[in-house]
Amino acid sequence: MKLLSTRASMAILLCMLSTAQGWGQQSSIAPQAPPAPRILQPFLPRIVPPVRMENSTRLADFLRDGTIYLTAQDAIALTLANDVDLEVARYNPLIAQWQVVRSLAGGALPGVPSSASQAGSVASGQGVAGSQAAAGVSNGNSQGSNRSANATISQVGPVVQTLDPSFQGAATFSHTSAPQPNATQSQTRNLIAGTRAYTGTVSDGFLSGGNASVSYNDHYLFENVPTDVLNPSVAPVLSLNVQHNLLNGFGIAVNKRNIMVARIGVETAQLNFRNQLGSLTAQALTSYYTLAADYLSLKAAEDALDVARTFEKNVKRQIELGSAAGFDLISAQTQTATAEQTAADAKASLETQQLQLKRLLSKSAAADPVLAKAPIVPTDQITIPEKDDLPSISDLVQEAIAHRPDLALDLANERSAAASSLGTRNGLLPTLQVSGGTSQAGLAGAPRSAIANASNVGGIGTALGQVFGRDFASRNGGAVFFTQVGNRQAQADYAIDQLQMRQTQLGTRKDFAQVQVDLMNSVIAMRQARAQYDAAVHNRILQEQLFAGEQKKYEAGSETPFGVTQEQRDLISARSQELAAMVAYNSARINLEQVRGTILETYHVSVDDALAGRQGSK
Questions:
Q1: Mean pLDDT, the chain, whole residue set
Q2: Could you give the domains of the chain?
Q3: What confidence score (pLDDT) does residue 186 get?
Q4: 396 Cβ contact list (under 8 Å, min separation 6)
Q5: What per-residue confidence (pLDDT) applies to 10?
């Protein structure tokens, strides 16, 4: 079930990040299994694709007659597809998912025993050395001792068991020659022995806090002594050992905490991505509509310049006719120069804003051959609704709590901290570990003496019959208790963990309390922008009427050029204020959508598509 759940979760994320259909073909960034038989894949490295630095192929489709025409939705899609920071963020959910896979394997992996340490080893009672070891006699020879041990990696707090089944096997062959100071048993001064040792162990851990292992050992011995009643001989041993924690390290919850934290990590990675996605969407919209407003500003400036030039021509004609004085031309020319400067400033502002939007739309910005010389023309204009139908603040707060990823991220961090604290809380307990095991041994060989037991005469089949018949069964059991007086380290770990968790909880409460303040400020800003826009529209209409009236007076000869020039300046200023108010209102509306947490839904941005890099592909 553990393996199945891991594969299922990996499959879901890999499908999410795989190549898109319909929008276009982009290579996946997810690690792929190597092209090898499945049995070998766990021991081969995953194939991690190179980084994607190419731009979305859809960008060229918007180019017509040397100009790029974009809707707001197109600008969002291309920005999300080509933003480098967002491409970097796409790796975080993948990394988090592999952290889950790592946590499912458990902790504290066992060390690998050296097969060289088993060279020359024999079972107890087997041959001369085994008989001496069984009798408690040692001649200083290292033969028969097994010095290997499965070292484990220690960690602070309860050690999670290794949850992936493991297999260890070793085979050793040796030829030894050992001097015999006492020839009573061996009847030779030089004991020569040939040994073969085969070992295999299968072990697995439990989430409850224990582990079990099944081991098989087989020793073959042939030696040059006449006193061996069985020579050559085989001595297999089959054993089962179980150990379990009862205090420190006991319980599924405490041993599953790393898995819980890793799974929450996947959730937080996706929430961070969603949060970054919302910010980037707002940035793209603001840049797009600012460019749209710059086009309107440039048009207004050019219209004002045309009016100024026309007025200057009229003044010159009236001077020629004698109906205007020479100094009136100075006012007209001044107005024309001012209008030319305003138009130049508007054009420079538009070019600057185009460059800023190009940086969002392309990884290579102005170096992109498509974007280098092509101007961008927004096809969507800023629209101001007749009225704002906003929900109540309480409804907006509930909406923000349900949709804002940063608030969900705060709650996820709290759950992660609570899961981690299970380890430091359990670490306060002393260690009490119980263990038990059973083993079955066998011994058989070729008889060299009449005193050999008939039941031991034979080969490996006879010895295995003794093992599975439990002719020589042994059992063992025990308990280990350990505690530190004062337990200051565990107490400190738990206290620090709890204090940090309280800090996290306090930060979450602060963020949730700030939601209402942020929403109220956004609503106030939007209402203020609405009032400023309405006032600017009304002022512009009045200035147009005043300017038209002054022109009629001038044409009738009852007004000087200076009066017309002054009204024209006021009209240009009124139009600029209207455009500025329009941009301010649109920015306030986008900001409110972001504070509400609904900007992605409002502009139809799919998190799954953006995560897979499909947004903006053809």
A1: 83
A2: 115-139+165-247+431-482 (no CATH), 259-417+496-612 (1.20.1600.10)
A3: 66
A4: 390, 519, 523, 596
A5: 44
